[in-house]
Amino acid sequence: MHDPKLPMTTASATQGSGSQNPSGAAGATVSSGAGYDPVKIGIVSISDRASSGVYEDKGLPALQEWLSRALKNPIQFESRLIPDEQARISAALIELVDAGCALVLTTGGTGPALRDVTPEATLAVAHKEMPGFGEQMRQISLKFVPTAILSRQVAVIRDHCLIINLPGQPKSIQETLEGLKDSQGQSVVSGIFAAVPYCIDLIGGPYLETHDAVCKAFRPKSAVRPGPAVH
C-alpha cells in the first residue's frame, strides 16, 4: 500500500509524567528490570471530545498501566491524543514508526460511526496486514456483547513496527490484550498480546518478555531465549 502525502506532526519526548503538550505529543519512560531489551512503544488515543478537552482521556492511562504490568522490559512510551481525523491519525502513526517504536497501540475510532476512521488511517500506512489480531479481538468481545461484530479493529506492519487498533473502553482494552481467565486464573481464551512478542521478533524488533500472571507470551521453543542471569 502507498503512503499518503501527509503533513508530519511534531513530537516532544520528555522524561517524566508524559503529560500532553499543545501538539498532542508526549513521552514518558517507565523503568523495569535490568537485563531485558529496552523497547519504545507508541500509544495513541483517538477521540474528538477527549482531544478537545470535553472529557478526560482514559485510553492512554489504560494502555500505559496494562503494558507496564505485562512487560518485564524497560519501556519508553510515546503518547499521542488526537481527534478522529484520518490524515492526522496516519501522520501520527508514521511519525511513531519513524521514531523507532517497535509497537504502536491505538484506542478509539474503530466503530461504524461516520467519524470512526482509525482502521482506514491505519491501513493507509500499512506494508502488511495482520488480520488475525482483529479476528481474535472480536471473538473475545463477543463473549460479552453481540455488538462486538460492529468493531473494525485492524493490525498492520509498517517497517519494523507492529500497529494494532484496540477498543475504546479501558475494560475492553484489558480483555482483548489479556484474554479471558477462569476463577482459578487459568487462560480460557488467549488475548492478542500473547502473540505480540513473537511477531515483533519476526520483524526485527526487541525481544519482549512478559509477566505470565498478566499475559503469557507464546513462542516456538526454537525462538525462546534464556532469561537474564540472576545474581
Q: What's the rounded overall pLDDT mean?
A: 87
- CATH first level of the domain at 25-174: which class? Alpha Beta
* Low-pLDDT ranges: 1-23
Number of helices: 7
Descriptive notes:
The protein is α/β, with parallel strands linked by helices. It has a domain at 25-174: Molybdenum Cofactor Biosythetic Enzyme, Chain A. Helices cover 27% and strands 20% of the residues. It is built from seven helices and nine strands. The strands form two sheets. It has a seven-stranded mixed beta sheet with strand order 1-3-2-4-7-6-5, sandwiched between helices. A two-stranded antiparallel ribbon has the order 8-9. The protein starts with 24 loop residues before the first strand and ends in a 29-residue tail after the last helix. Residues 1-23 have low confidence and may be disordered.
Task: Identify the notable features of this structure and list them briefly.
27% helix; two-stranded antiparallel ribbon; disordered N terminus; 7 helices; seven-stranded mixed beta sheet; 231 residues; Molybdenum Cofactor Biosythetic Enzyme, Chain A; alpha/beta
Write the layout of secondary structure elements.
Layout: E1 25-30, E2 39-46, H1 48-51, H2 59-70, E3 75-82, H3 86-98, E4 103-107, H4 118-123, E5 128-129, H5 131-142, E6 155-158, E7 161-166, H6 170-178, E8 179-181, E9 187-190, H7 196-202
Parallel strand pairs: 2-3, 2-4, 4-7
Antiparallel strand pairs: 1-3, 5-6, 6-7, 8-9
Helix pairs in contact: 5-6
